[in-house]
Design brief:
The protein has 4 domains: 127 residues, Response regulator (Rossmann fold), CATH 3.40.50; 140 residues, Reverse transcriptase/Diguanylate cyclase domain (Alpha-Beta Plaits, 2-Layer Sandwich); 110 residues; 107 residues, Homeodomain-like (Arc Repressor Mutant, subunit A). It contains 24 helices and 10 strands. A 5-stranded parallel beta sheet has the order 2-1-3-4-5, with helices on both faces. α13 packs antiparallel against α14. The longest helix has 41 residues. The relative contact order is 0.06. The mean pLDDT is 81.
Length: 533
Amino acid sequence: MMMKVMLVDDEPFILQGLSVIIDWEKEGCEIVKKASDGQEALRYLRENEVDLIITDIRMPKINGIELLETVRNEKLSEAYIIILSGYNDFKYAQAAIRYSAMEYILKPVQKEQLIENIRRVAKKRENMIQEEMDSQRMQRGYLLQNMTALLQGKGKEQNISYVKENFRCGGGVRYLHICLNDLSALDEMSDEEVSELKDRIYGQVSGYLRENEDHLFKDFFVYEEDYEIGFIYCDYMAKERNLSEEEFMKALQKTAQGGSEKLPVILLVGKWVEDIAKVSHSYSSACVLRSFKGFQDTKSIYYYEKEVQVNPSRTVLCIQSLNDLVKAVEQNDTLLINKSVDALFVEMDRLDRTRETVTMNLNWLIFRLLNLATEQDESVNQDEVLSYISESVSKEEIIRGSRVHMRKFACECAEYLVQLRKNVSGGILTEIENEVKERYMENLTLRELGQKYYINSSYLGQIFRKRYGQSFKNYLNNYRIKEAASQLIRTDKKISRIAEDVGYRDLDYFISRFIEQEGCTPSRYRKSAREEE
């Protein structure tokens, strides 16, 4: 970013001389204003920002010292100031120092001296900007830590207090997933293309939210998916725009879709909760939507209250047909599964099948099959299982809730149960540990590893979490951060280069992860480590 410079002198030939004495562009500067006295300079500063003021002392109306005094007392600018004077008077120097002038230079100005001072200003400005960025990232990192605890339902009083003090969240709250909704298309895209697409969507939505953009998170560490962005919606957001909640969500989705011509963008809107302290309930309901959307009609916005709940008075459960289907799934008998699904639909038709009836019976089937999974392995995460199966089914062009759709779903569940019964955790997890050590800088995913080792990727994630107490993605990220920390100490490579070397294309995301794991920014970590040596 070019440094904005204002020159102030009542002698036109001196102003002209200062503007040509050095190559300002080469020094990373842009002269934005040439003022003939202090009064003109003040008028400009009240409407505009500058980074450096170079001013004479002896001027009519308002002299250089008075200009400096007014700027500091009225807090018009944080600009660095260099005083020029033809008078070698210690009183002027004292006054300049009192008002935080950076330098006091006697006329005639020497080119080398002026360049030296400009470069000093540029260096101090660069350090200040870096410190501000580090501070902002630290604050964002701490907010992420505390918000993540709330989302996971592990929030303690100090987490709740920190979020409420540093995050505008008055009134009711909803958690939203902003999703790219074509996984098969995503699989065909490179990691860089997916990252660029997600960044565009994030930028579009940030612009729409304006002052509420800090409610948008592309680096939550709660869930695995790299194609999702998290958003904390509060009641006041729609009200301040004179919109209903539904109108706000439609505008949000339309804005997000505007950042993606390649893929559909959808919103999964978790249930409403009255306070940010209960946001985990909204988050978990949005995760349920992520699983159930594979069985619902295609929409751009899914609301938990509308999609998951069904009025029991209008529906009938076909218990016997459902029990027969569950038994067929348990036996992994494809022929029997198809017959059982046909029998279920015949019974629903006989009972005057409605959309609600199909949904109720499908939900009951899901519940029973997930129970079967947990009977095989009690550590199974039901949301992840259902999400994986529904995404797999949704890859094919099948009408949701149809006979073919339910057959496919039941067969996928049967295959999943087969995987659960296999004793595969020991050797494969050792192989995956080695994969991480050798390929941590690559975009390793459970999907790829599942295909390589011929194991259901969702189940692989389950057994990985059971052994290591964390998700595969977090394990991989933690390994990368440890390697980055080592490079920060052992090498003089730039932080951006280290981030790339350990597998991060997004520097801000890398710094957020580093703060989350090490408790400080990478630059501070390097500085502290070297001070201890």
